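ok here's the first one, seq then struct tokens
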Amino acid sequence: MFQPERFATVGFAARRRPNGFVASVMWVFGLVAGAAAVAVGAILAIFTAVTVAVIALFAGVLVFLAGLAMKARRNMTQRRRSSDADVIEAHKVGETWVAYGWERDGR
């Protein structure tokens, strides 16, 4: 006579579903595990959003400071160009022009 309980069965059909009290306890534990997974996912999503916001804040401050630095550099360049140290005086002596202040530093 053939007895199927003595042999191992393979596949989804081989699973035995618990009955009675064990089934309800497993269902409750599954529900608790699912709720815990949702809670951990929500906390991680909030942590990720806060991290992105902080990175964006630091990037905005960095761009603002870079803009201030570029503005200061532009203003200093304009001041240097408008200073009297770069102006060369020239007078016409006879048929030629004579320039004063043409000497370079360090020569």
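and now the second one, same deal
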Amino acid sequence: MPCLNLSTNVSLEGVDTSAILSEATSTVAELIGKPKAYVMIVLKGSVPMAFGGSEQPAAYGELVSIGGLNPDVNKKISAAVAEILSSKLSVPKSRFFLKFFDSERSFFGWNGSTF
């Protein structure tokens, strides 16, 4: 159950967030090798955020997954998500960090239990 949590200081008002969520879902599912039905994307806008002392458009993300992550996959996901943020929200690729967490099944709760 991969979960990509994205926060940005860019306002999402007037933005087609469905397109961002859909593209991010497809990207994560394809690159990690998990069904889209298990991928969760969280997108938060207008988050007070400074990067390098500047409040220009920036973003931070965390991707948690049970397996499927490795240095090669992480690099591809980072590039793909940076492209989505750049094209859809005008966040420069150089103003985006993404942290990866490969978690154990017992550390994921779902359906009132753990995996």
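notes on #2: The chain has a mean pLDDT of 96. The radius of gyration is 14 Å.
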